[in-house]
Amino acid sequence: KQPHSVVRVGRYSERDINIVSPDSPILPVGFKSKVVSRRHCEFWCSNGQWYVKDVKSSSGTFLNHVRLSSPGQESRPFPVNDGDVVQLGIDFKGGEEVIFRCVKIRIECNRGWQKSLNNFNTSAHKRILNNNQAGGSEATATGSSECSICLNPVAPCQALFVAPCSHVWHYKCIRNLIEGRNSPNFMCPNCRFVADLDADVEPPEE
Fold first, then answer.
1. What distance in Å separates the CA atoms of residue 152 and residue 138, rounded to the nearest whole number?
2. Euclidean distance between CA atoms 179 and 117, whole angstroms
3. What does the mean pLDDT of the chain come to?
4. In this protein, which residues make up the domain named RING-type (predicted)?
5. pLDDT tens per residue, range 119-135
6. What's the predicted TM-score (pTM) here?
7. Residues in CB range of 119: below 8 A, 6 or more apart
8. 57: closest CA among 75, 42, 72?
9. Domains annotated on the chain, with CATH
10. Between β-strands 61-63 and 66-67, what pairing exists: parallel, antiparallel or unpaired?
């Protein structure tokens, strides 16, 4: 994506797709819906914040159920955030049975925090360590347990497998045992506990 690119949303047209060069700052997105105008709205990012505006659509652009402008009038820019819902047009009934549906878009943006340390994954990691220690596994002096297969630390933001006996490994280290010829039966290489990985999940006994 080029810096300062504009995502131009409208009704699908092969002509618009074919005339856009790879180096163009315009990124067309088309929907095959009769309630979407040929040019409906635009998205762009400025200083880390995404924005949307209606570009004179006839059926309207809605942000979290609020229409951005009157029909045929361009709106001012509105900031959009992760989890917002943008709606293009409104449902329209033509005749007795034909219904043209609006287009709803759920925004997913600025999710870089999910790939780095944050309160959620560090708290989840601590809970895993607590279960691991309760199951008899020893922790290092730093409070981070080790994968008994590769002997490297088990840390946040890693793909892990937690056995029913609460022992923990890196998923890529234990994968061959999980998917082995005895699957779905799994034998813990640490304590030799055997579990059925396809067993129904039941509430813990008090």
1. 14
2. 30
3. 83
4. 147-192
5. 778 888 888 877 766 55
6. 0.54
7. none
8. 72
9. 6-110 (2.60.200.20), 114-196 (3.30.40.10)
10. antiparallel
